[in-house]
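User: Could you go from structure to sequence for me? I need the amino acid at each position, not a summary. Structure tokens:
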């Protein structure tokens, strides 16, 4: 299914790719995206229907981009939306979960990047605006979240792993999985649960990778 999903996207974009002034770079982005999708299908998915994350956040990125005219800002907003959505599900919608789902946030990030890639390939005349890192909203969002979690941790309201003696209000992993694979109850399945530090690193690296689409300018610029 992963191969069919990637092949359908490639087939849709192929006519525009052939005419693109930066076709080699676009092929590179498509190749990396296909590899990421394949890894997600084989490592992170419990069921294949989770591919809907890609579609949802690709559409979100396409809708957000006209507001900022910046791939990096769009990626920041998409990652924030994905993170808040998982936070809502974890704390309110289904507080029986034993971990914050970084898997889904990564799927959302890849989906948003694919949406921007579609825009970049289909509309080569689009001019984007890149910002220096110290003015970038992603920097301030990251700094704000880090400060909030630091203060909450110092006050005992936040922890990465569960503390049985003094449980925090918000714990990323109430019960840390053993080993690389997690085996959910029911029909046989296995998937990897991204832990907080590796999850954050991979999500930020993926968002940064797609943010670099800002650097690819039309030849007329």
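Assistant: Here is the amino acid at each position, in order:
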């Amino acid at each position: 299914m992963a191969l069919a999903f990637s092949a359908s996207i490639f087939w849709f974009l192929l006519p525009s790719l052939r005419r693109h002034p930066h076709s080699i770079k676009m092929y590179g982005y498509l190749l990396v995206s296909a590899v990421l999708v394949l890894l997600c299908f084989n490592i992170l998915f419990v069921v294949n229907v989770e591919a809907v994350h890609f579609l949802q956040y690709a559409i979100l990125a396409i809708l957000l981009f006209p507001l900022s005219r910046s791939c990096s800002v769009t990626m920041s907003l998409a990652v924030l939306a994905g993170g808040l959505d998982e936070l809502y599900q974890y704390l309110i919608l289904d507080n029986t979960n034993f971990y914050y789902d970084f898997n889904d946030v990564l799927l959302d990030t890849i989906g948003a990047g694919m949406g921007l890639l579609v825009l970049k390939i289909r509309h080569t005349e689009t001019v984007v605006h890149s910002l220096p890192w110290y003015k970038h909203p992603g920097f301030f969002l990251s700094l704000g979240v880090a400060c909030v979690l630091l203060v909450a941790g110092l006050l005992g309201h936040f922890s990465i792993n569960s503390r049985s003696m003094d449980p925090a209000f918000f714990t990323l992993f109430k019960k840390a999985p053993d080993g690389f694979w997690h085996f959910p109850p029911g029909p046989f399945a296995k998937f990897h649960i991204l832990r907080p530090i590796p999850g954050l690193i991979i999500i930020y690296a993926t968002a940064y990778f797609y943010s670099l689409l800002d650097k690819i300018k039309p030849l007329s610029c």
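One structural detail worth keeping in mind: The chain has a mean pLDDT of 85.
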